[in-house]
Amino acid sequence: MSVIKVPRKPLTFAERTYIPQIVSGMMTTLKHIVAKPLTVNYPEERPEIPAGYRGVPTLVRDPNGREKCVSCQLCEFVCPPKAIRITPGEIPADSPAAHVEKAPKEFEINMLRCIYCGLCQEVCPEEAIWLQNVFSVSGYERGEFINNKQKLYELGGTLPDAHYKWDKKKAAAEEAALHGQH
Amino acid sequence: MLDFYFSLPLIVRLIIQGLAVIAVLFPLGAACSMAERKVAAWAQDRPGPNRARPWGLGRIPIIGPILGRFGIFNLMADGGKLLFKEDIVPGHVNKFYFVIAPIVAMTPALSTIAFVPFGAYLDGAGRVLPVMLADVDIGILGVFALASLGVYSLILAGWASNSKYPFLGAIRASAQLISYELSMTLAVVPVLLWINAPGTPGTLSLVRVVEFQSQSGFWGGAWFVFVMPLSAFIFLVALFAETNRQPFDMPESEADLVGGFHTEYGSYKWSLFFVAEYGHMIVGSALFILLFCGGWNPLPWLPLSTFVGWLAPLGAWTAHPLFVGILSICIFLGKVIFSIFFFMWVRWTLPRFRYDQVMRIGWQRLLPLSIANLIIYTIAIALLN
């Protein structure tokens, strides 16, 4: 049967006086009155930021201290509000990271434009750009909202690396050179 | 000091007493607004106003942070703001009545307290004497007569504002106040019938009501809330309506009337309405406590005199009239504060009634109920006597 008849019982006398309902409602209110507040006293107390929070985008280094960004400019390309501007640069030959393709000379994220969508993090092939736990951005001038490369690395810090892509690549190349292949 | 006070002429003493009571009642009314905000916050799982810390006062160790946490400085800042804000009188109002309305609101709210005993002390013979401004026989009748003057302020404010929302608010308010006054008065009559047994000198004094609740024995010591629960319930519901509290706050239902009768008011005039409302609440709760909850007696079946008798081993000072007076006032105030908390508690539980529901409850439910209650108790009292 497709139609289900829901029986509607007439209200009992107690229900029509509302009193039992009011009493149970007041008990609920009392429970909330005695409960601990759910809010925090903001600037003094900070909320617990859960893992995976999408805060301000930052640049990170790998555990060896190498900047992971190779300035491929995919994030700059994908960024919907065009908040990212990258100036690519070369890595000097005497650098310990000389085997890496490139590094950004300058990397700017305009926080007045950023919409915290996380597409830059999603698109990054090097896992170099991460939206981390910084959620409060303030300043007195427009310039203060443009995070440059140095600021981005300060905010980002170091994250563990599961791949060491470039080191493996270098090791593989050395191995190959040793065996005279490729 | 005390001798100098008693050497003053009676009229001066009465004026000093009256001013002292007003000096307590007015800030208490204002403090209720902060209590309201705090209870509102707690009911919504927030801490509530706790930030204001003036430069000097907030730095007093221990006391400063505590006062800050309870929003006392917010309260002072509110008062200061309302006092110094520009007092706008709109161009389209009837100026005389517009200005006089908040005064008319404030006057009954402060003057009803004259008939309310708020404490007691024992004289040498062990008799209980009330602490109050005017121990007159009309007692509760005086409170009702003065409190119902409050409706004029609403009508005046609504009419003088010359604008539709205040007008609608005033009409609703006056209709509501008049409707519920009937049930309220009828609910009190059984109490007064019960205490005025035939052959005793008749009185409407609230002191007598409390005295009656502090006798010895099971029926003597029972508060009237146990003897006449229905009367107490009707009185309480009518009290909510009379003080324009949720769920009966028709006059200022923000959703449909902007601000109700005080839409056109601002700054200090508005705050006078506000404090008057809390003043009515305080006096109303005091009335409820005197009539049904034993006044200054600490617990049911435990009169004040017995309680003071228990304290006697602590020293002779416990029998001093000053100590007993302050103790009884504290007990009474504690009950009043709990009752005001109850008002706020209900406010954050029940949604507002619709206007037709308010009228239906008032005339079709509460009034017949209070008449039936009166008849049943009259017959019962007649049979008992």
Structure report:
The complex is a heterodimer of chains A (182) and B (385). With 182 residues, chain A is an alpha+beta fold. Chain A has a domain of 106 residues: Alpha-Beta Plaits. In chain A, 30% of the residues lie in helices and 12% in strands. Chain A is built from six helices and five strands. Chain B has 17 helices and two strands. A two-stranded antiparallel sheet of chain B has the order 1-2. The longest helix of chain B is centred in the first third of the chain and has 34 residues. Chain B is globular, with a radius of gyration of 22 Å. At the A-B interface, helix 2 of A face helix 2 of B.
Which helices and strands appear, and what pairs or packs with what?
The complex is a heterodimer of chains A (182) and B (385).
Chain A lengths: L12 H5 L1 H16 L22 E3 L14 H5 L5 E6 L13 E8 L8 H5 L5 E3 L14 E2 L1 H8 L8 H15 L3
Antiparallel strand pairs in A: 1-4, 2-3, 3-5
Chain B lengths: L1 H6 L2 H34 L19 H7 L2 H13 L10 H17 L7 E4 L5 E4 L7 H9 L2 H11 L3 H32 L10 H8 L4 H4 L2 H4 L1 H14 L11 H4 L9 H26 L11 H8 L9 H27 L7 H30 L1
Antiparallel strand pairs in B: 1-2
Helix pairs in contact in B: 2-4, 2-14, 2-16, 4-14, 5-7, 5-14, 7-8, 8-12, 8-17, 12-14, 12-17, 14-16
Task: Give the averaged pLDDT of chain B, no decimals.
Answer: 81
Considering DSSP H and I runs of 4 or more, what fraction of the residues of chain A is helical? 25-40%
Which regions of chain B have little confidence, pLDDT < 50, spanning 5+ residues? none
Radius of gyration of chain A: 28 Å
Strand percentage of chain B lies at under 5%
Helix content of chain B: 55-70%
Number of helices of chain B: 17
Kindly name the structural category of chain A: alpha+beta
Unreliable segments of chain A (pLDDT under 50, ≥5 consecutive)?
Answer: none
